[in-house]
Amino acid sequence: MKNILVAEDDEKMRNGLVEILKGEGYHVDSAENGQKGLEMLKEKDFDVVLSDLIMPIMGGMEFLRNIKQIKPGTSVIFITGFGTIENAVEAIKVGASDYITKPFKIDEVQSKIKKVLAEKEFEKIPDILDSNVIKAISNPIRKDVVKLLAASGKLKFTEIKKMLKIDDPTKLSFHLRILKSSFLIEQDSEKIYMLSTDGKKLLENLKKIDGEGKGSRINSPA
């Protein structure tokens, strides 16, 4: 279970975010300002900190700098008003992972956290990061091939061509070669295609990154 810390001085918003994230299966703690949050970080490891940018006692930027000193591996997502977006962009330069503007949709918070957690998973697979994998899946056809093989297990070339409705076999052959050269797919002795171990790991992260939906907005003062 992933640990998340919510640092927000608005009690209603703080409690709302805690409830939502706990409902998503995360272990969630909360703090009313950056100083309190920092004390909690010294005692416990958190995967993600979701923090307001403007808080009393210790503001978001100071909080971020302290986090990066004592727990550099912790990802930080800021919540900010439209009037402080420039500050949020500056925070990303300092080391924040992302930001969300008020008012925001509930699913936007969920999506940002899933994306950040997925990126952390990528960091645990250096052999994938050091390869051309990101380039390999940048094409929608190659991305669809990975998802299709994940759903079907093993498929012949003709089956992939038919299921993806690709008329040109040369085009599909080209994309399959790229996926093979990136070690995302492989073939057995009968030339049947399947996902490799790296391909399966990549797919799990793609699911987290692509996960989006619709939801209501949470409103709060900037």
Protein traits:
3-stranded antiparallel beta sheet; 17% strand; Arc Repressor Mutant, subunit A; Rossmann fold; elongated; 222 residues; alpha/beta; 5-stranded parallel beta sheet
Summarize the structure.
This protein is 53% helix and 17% strand.
Based on CA atoms alone, the radius of gyration comes out at 21 Å
**Shape estimate:** elongated
Annotation, overall tally of beta strands: 10
Arrangement of strands in the largest sheet? 2-1-3-4-5
List the secondary-structure elements in sequence, H or E: EHEHEHEHEEHHHHEHHEEHE
Helix content, binned percent: 40-55%
Rounded to the nearest angstrom, the distance between the terminal CA atoms is 31 Å
Q: Please identify, by name, the CATH architecture of the largest domain.
A: 3-Layer(aba) Sandwich
Number of self-contained structural domains = 2
Largest sheet: 5 strands, parallel
Question: Do you know the CATH topology of the largest domain?
Answer: Rossmann fold
Tally the helices: what do you get? 11
- The structure class reads alpha/beta
Strand content bin: 15-25%
Please tell me the overall pLDDT.
Answer: 85
Low-confidence stretches: 212-217
CATH hierarchy class name of the largest domain? Alpha Beta
Descriptive account of the structure:
The two termini are 31 Å apart. The protein is built from eleven helices and ten strands. Mean pLDDT is 85; it is low at 212-217. The chain has two domains: 3-124, Rossmann fold, CATH 3.40.50.2300; 127-207, Orthogonal Bundle (Arc Repressor Mutant, subunit A), CATH 1.10.10. The longest helix is centred in the middle third of the chain and has 18 residues, at 106-123. Helix 2 (34-43) packs parallel to helix 3 (60-70) and helix 5 packs antiparallel against helix 11 (197-210). The protein is of the alpha/beta class and 222 residues long. It is elongated, with a radius of gyration of 21 Å. Strand 4, helix 4 (85-94) and strand 5 form a beta-alpha-beta unit. Helix content is 53%, strand content 17%. The strands form three sheets. Strands 2-1-3-4-5 form a five-stranded parallel sheet, sandwiched between helices. It has a three-stranded antiparallel sheet with strand order 7-9-8.
